[in-house]
Write a structure and sequence with these properties.
By secondary structure, this protein is α+β, with helices and mostly antiparallel strands. The protein folds into two domains: 6-120, Sufe protein. Chain: A; 130-189, Orthogonal Bundle (Arc Repressor Mutant, subunit A). The chain is built from six helices and seven strands; from the N terminus they run αβββαββαββααα. The strands form three sheets. A three-stranded antiparallel β-sheet has the order 1-2-3. 38% of the residues are buried. Mean pLDDT is 81; it is low at 92-99.
Amino acid sequence: MGIYPKDIEEMIASCNHSGEPDRIDAEGVDANIRCGSWVRFALRIKNGSISAVGFTSNGCGYMIAAAETLSTRLDGCALSELHGLDAVPVRADVGVVEASDRPACSDAVLSALREALAEYRESVIAASGDKALACTCFSITVDTIEAAAANGADTLEKVQEECRAGGGCGSCRMLIQEIIDQQTVMFTND
C-alpha cells in the first residue's frame, strides 16, 4: 500500500502538466505555510486562451494532484471561460469532481493560478499603453468599472451583471472591489 490513496498515486504517476511550457507569459507562486509546500504555475497565453500550462511543486501528493487537476481544466481554455474557480478539488474521478480532502493544498494551487493571471493582466496593461485593463478575460477597462460603480453597481455581482468584469477567472475581483469602494467613498463625501 502506498502513502496516498490509489487515485492520487495514479494522478501523480501520470502528471501531464508537470514542468514549464517552452515560453512563459505569466507565472504565479503560492505556498501552504502549514506544511512548507509550494506550487508555481507557468502559463503561455495566445489569442485569449491558455495554450500551455505547467506547474512545479515541492508539495505533497495532494498538492500535486490539485495542480494537475486544475492544469487539465485550464489547458486550451479561453480566459473568458474561466468560471467557477473558487475551489480546486484534489480528486477527480471519471469527470465527476469530488470535494477536496486537503483544502490548504487546493487553496495554494488556486492562489498561484490567480497570481499568474494577475501578472498576465498587468503585462497586458503595460504593453498596451492604452487605458488600464482591469479584467483581461473580457477586456474591461478600469474606466468601464468606474462608470458602472458610479451608475449604482455597488457590489461585485452588480458590476458583473452590468459589464461582465470579474465573471471569468476572478483574478481581478479584488481590484473591482477597490474601485467600488473608491466610488462609494467619493459619493458619500459629496
